[in-house]
Amino acid sequence: MAVMRQSRPGRISGGRSSAWLPALVALLSLLMLPWGRTDRSLLEFDGKLLVLSQAPGLGVLLLAGLAVLVVASLLHLPLVQRGYALVGLGSAGFLAGVGWLVTTGVPFGVGALLALSALLVLIGVGLSESGIIQNDPFVTSSILISSLFVLLFIVYPLFTVLRESIWIKGVFTLSKVQSVLGSPLFISIENPYTPQSEQFRVALTTLALGLVGAVLAARGGLRAGRVFAGLGAGLVLGWIVGAGIYGGGALPTSLYLALIVAPITTGLGLVFALLEQRSRAGWVRRSLAIVSLLPLITPPFVFAFALIYWLGRSGIITGDLLGLKSNFLFGINGVAIAQIFAFTPVAFLILRGSVQGLNPAFEEASATLRAQPWPTFQRITWPLLRPGLAAAFLLTIIESLADFGNPMLLGGDRNFLATEVFLALTGRYDPNEAAVYGTVLLGLVLVVFALQRLWLGNTSFVTVTGKPGGGNFSPLPLWLERTLQTVLALWGLAVVLLYFSIFYGSFVQIWGINNSFTFKHYQDLTNLGLPVLLKTAQLAFISAIIATLVGFLIAYLVSRQQFFGRGLLEVGSMLSFATPGTVMGVAYILAFNTGPWLLTGTGIIIVLALVFRNMPAAIRGVISGLSQIDKSLEEASTLLRAPSSTTLRRVLLPLLIPQLLAGMVFSFVRGMTAISQIIFLISPGNALATVLLLRWIEQGDLGRGAAMATVMIFGLLAVILLLFAVSRCFGRGTSLDAAV
Question: Residue 417 contacts by C-beta under 8 Å, 6 or more apart in sequence?
Fold first, then answer.
């Protein structure tokens, strides 16, 4: 609830302003801390780097303006006049400081960071006191700072990727786009060394699936628009399937892979969600509780690593049981299997909420009208599940396209978009080519978003109305439940075997060659991997705290405050979650590698990348918690003349501790297991555990890699169990589902 100020210029005195503290911080920062840097270290302190030494004119201007603001904030001036003075002088100082950094290209120092942030707070106080924005100073300043962070660390890097793909050496050109899109690495259909024509096979597959799409669309009515839409969708899917099977290149391979993985993972997720809600067997729920933890505690490419033990050239099944030296695992087959194991739990976590949110009264009404179970599912349950299915399908497509570790380990001779981004930047040293690949990835995600919105349309899916409801979900038919339980049992057996292979592989000399027992890999891990693990935990913990606090603040602003641009702030803050991690990694390299925002080569850029990658999880969790807290509590605090900062700290924060703990642990675990984004950002002294693990596996050091994976999995599992113990101390349950 915003407090509106009624004031007239020159009539009402505002008392002592809250602007004196940020003005004093800015003043001391300019006098005592370095304005710029000469290297990548933010801890570089030198008297020659003070603003009066580096930029005397700018320093005199800023110090004079801040001195005036400090004096004005301590005097009893008219409220509106003082507000306009704060806005005017603060804006002038902020723009002058940023303008100097941008035009000179000098990397910002600690003094510039603190001074410019304090100036932004001063602008917020002024906007509030002048009445331009009808909120208290804390809320207004928070809106400005949050918006700046979103613009600088999410929107600006993505804009840089788009710019670098068409702006080369200061000239606008499409030559790089044309060369990349025309490269065999991107699309390759015809193979001159084979007797058959791949183009003919692709065309035949495209035409066949196009006709199938038109026929299926015609079953709903012979309307031209519907038939043409079905034909078009069939032609697109046909080309993806044909080019993925008979052709090559990063685009068709990645699309074909996503087309395999997304439906299977979404279907399995729906199976598990239905079993959890409607199964008669108690062991099902206990098993699914374990399944829901898998994506949290496991690095995304560990399943690929485990599959090598079973289906590799010296694997248990292929080598020991069948006596084969097959490359079946290396290519689309292996990557698809690994991604299905990795992303099905994510789809399950999304769909379990949709299944649990169904109203059983609808199904009971259908049964009362003597409808059979299948028509009931087709006409009532299925339409209500569409939002959850669309969200799960979308997320698994994004995860598949952005996945980096599994294609690197199992890709074989196939090209993938995510790996080509990495190879273009680190192998071919061509940032413009990497930007083009990143732009293609981002464009594909936006297309999938548009298709999701088109499928859902403007249909309402509300089932919770606030009115009393009753009834129980009808159990699954016995034959169906037995079938789904068999699927779950097979899935669980495969997962147990995969995890066991990692654990077992950490205690043998050389997998498949010398299986004698040894502790050597753990001894090596103590010397080589433990410092990296501790460094990873340190960076992940720092990023988790910042992501949780920033997410808490943004969630409060977008759910409890009304201001211009609220929707843009919400969309912008969630944009990094929808953007493939590979794209964000390239974006950070391109945006923060030179000029005033130079951060590459430091641990700070890794922390920032993890913060803004995992922050949406904290936002979603806090918004969910705020929806359960009555606004009358905040209104009562406001009536007692408490500012928003006090209400936030003393009313909302204690009530949201479970959600904040869940968001922090989720951010920490995701920071420990991240790979696709931070692999671009590591530097000497800032190596991370997942990158080291991937490097060991690529080099064939499977035992050492298995030891690292085992320590990470059990360590992260202990962290999650500790969360539940802490949550019980607060007397409230904490669920990680809202943060996934």
Answer: 250, 251, 254, 401, 437, 440, 441, 444, 582
